[in-house]
């Protein structure tokens, strides 16, 4: 059955091969850049130049310091620029550049389209050198590079202005410059600029315009590339930043080049090739089928060949060197220890004058490679004011490390349970006022809503509890410790241990034990427990008992609610200083989130509406409903049902929506 398409393919191939003997070309086209395109590109250093946001970023769009960097990105195959037999090749290339400054008001340095003998970026080619040359190679034939520069900074006397295009031959001092201000184009304002470079074997012409406008010829100059460059060259881009920075990116790139290679243009070649190709094709199909089945299995088992390759190929935060993190934390000095958990130890550190928290994943823990990758790549991309930001990661000497923003006020549990701790050594923490507590539960709700509904991928936190809520300098809540709950579940699956089933006892929805997986609704349940403990200043329940549903804060509070005096449950440390109506509505909301039937729990959207006073809390029965499984969806339409019902999904972890 599968042979018919193959035969068709072969016929097309033969047709193509015969045709290609008359018109040879070196063509490629990227209408945008996706991770997939990396295999067709050659990146000088992929922690500097890489694909992000559908564009080829020559100097990075990463977290962290991007000053004084230079990078290059090329098409993966060399272009035959000239041959003795056929002379110089012609080419016509169009690309769209977008240069924007990230934060700084000042921009630097620039970007260039280059033809280069060498794929490496010269050492110390940042700043004015544009990644083209450095102080040693500038002006020498050793550089062996020809470029069209788009300069956004007047770096030295001879530079025309901060918005020009120039022709660079083995030097960043242009032999020819033209200001783009004459053509209505401002390079550094983050606007797409279309550039077309044509070379007809004698003259090089450069056209520049805004994307949808007619191209302006900026210059045309006679140029003998055969004298300047070797026969085979890399084509691509270089860029640099200096004291001032910008994001230098290419959003699209199209290249049509003539192939002047010495071809053995006889039919024999075709006849040898066709059988070889067809054999390769057939075995390729077989192998593909085999592989595609097999790889599915691999994914489940989490067998990644190499952590680095996997993380590098995605939009990831900064990669740290182990040495940097050792320096930052005083070689993981115990004095810098912030806390210790099942997954490792967290240290405080200082990096580039900024405070950071470094989690050193314990080698004994089962936070395996796959979870580490998941945390770095998925969580690293999340960005919300109520999430602890992942600054970077490190994998060296088999050490897995995660770097987060430092949270000056530590975790929330210390503030709400301090009286419960008999220990006198703990410095006493101030009591959080009602307004602060409300702000905290609101912040966590916003973070969860973002995780569930706001980002490209739906993320379940799985381990919401007060010790995973961090407080920043203004006591805003920041949800932290991602991927851990997910990890526990992974571990649970393989170890058949029930002690560490996803989540923390006391915070887990009753159905968790039956469905053995996390859902949006189990996250909402844990959130409900958090709300109750923050308002009541009481621990969620007997933490040593696993299924402590009957012994929980939920039961305890429901009793108050049944008796019609729910506000009496409020933390006595508040000394009655709170808005009764707000507290009552928040407590009822907390109970609604902890409804034994997951179908009745509100969505995080509804939670937010209640907390901001835009909606009343959902109806909650006076008597605590008993837990029945399987849980039935509500029979009569209930105000929040449309939200909850549609939400009751079965994905178990991070899943694309
Ligand atoms: C790539 O760039 C990073 C970031 O600047 C640097 O730390 C690393 O050493 C570079 N790698 C190579 C092979 O030059
Ligand atoms: C960047 O490099 C220049 C020299 O090229 C140096 O003067 C400057 O201090 C460096 N800036 C940073 C932030 O490293
Ligand atoms: C080069 O490409 C541009 C854009 O595709 C096109 O308009 C132009 O005619 C081409 N020039 C030549 C000489 O083929
Ligand atoms: C300039 O680059 C070349 C080639 O990468 C290198 O050999 C040379 O040491 C560099 N010069 C400086 C000053 O870094
Ligand atoms: C770089 O090379 C050019 C010649 O191409 C020369 O005019 C210029 O002075 C050189 N710049 C430096 C800083 O060496
Ligand atoms: C380009 O835009 C920037 C930012 O708006 C501005 O500072 C600069 O003067 C502009 N340059 C030209 C040449 O118009
Ligand atoms: C140019 O890039 C910047 C930063 O990546 C982005 O904000 C902006 O939307 C881009 N411009 C266009 C026209 O896409
Ligand atoms: C190159 O430019 C020169 C001068 O502008 C012109 O005389 C010549 O015809 C051009 N060559 C080609 C192949 O267009
Ligand atoms: C350019 O034109 C296309 C198609 O007409 C349009 O989708 C796009 O938004 C335009 N871009 C700009 C920057 O005007
Ligand atoms: C970069 O800034 C440093 C001081 O921070 C200064 O010494 C140096 O001259 C600057 N370099 C350039 C190229 O502006």
Task: Name a few traits of the molecule.
27% helix; alpha+beta; Phosphorylase Kinase, domain 1; 23% strand; eight-stranded antiparallel sheet; Jelly Rolls; binds 2-acetamido-2-deoxy-beta-D-glucopyranose; Transferase(Phosphotransferase), domain 1
Descriptive notes:
This protein is of the alpha+beta class and 657 residues long. The chain has 15 helices and 28 strands. It has three domains: 38-259, Jelly Rolls, CATH 2.60.120; 308-405, Phosphorylase Kinase, domain 1 (2-Layer Sandwich), CATH 3.30.200.20; 413-656, Transferase(Phosphotransferase) domain 1 (Transferase(Phosphotransferase), domain 1), CATH 1.10.510.10. A hairpin with a 2-residue loop joins strand 3 (50-52) and strand 4 (55-59). It binds 2-acetamido-2-deoxy-beta-D-glucopyranose (NAG) (10 copies).
Secondary structure elements and their pairing?
Layout: H1 3-20, E1 25-30, E2 41-43, E3 50-52, E4 55-59, E5 70-75, E6 79-80, E7 82-83, E8 87-88, E9 91-100, E10 110-116, E11 145-151, E12 164-169, E13 176-179, E14 192-199, E15 203-210, E16 216-222, H2 225-228, E17 232-240, E18 247-258, H3 267-301, H4 307-312, E19 318-319, H5 322-328, E20 337-341, E21 344-351, E22 354-361, H6 369-379, E23 390-396, E24 399-405, H7 413-416, H8 434-454, E25 457-458, E26 469-471, E27 477-479, H9 484-495, H10 512-515, H11 520-536, H12 553-562, H13 580-593, H14 604-611, H15 641-647, E28 655-656
Helix pairs in contact: 1-3, 8-11, 8-14, 11-13
The site of one 2-acetamido-2-deoxy-beta-D-glucopyranose (NAG) has 3 residues, from loops.
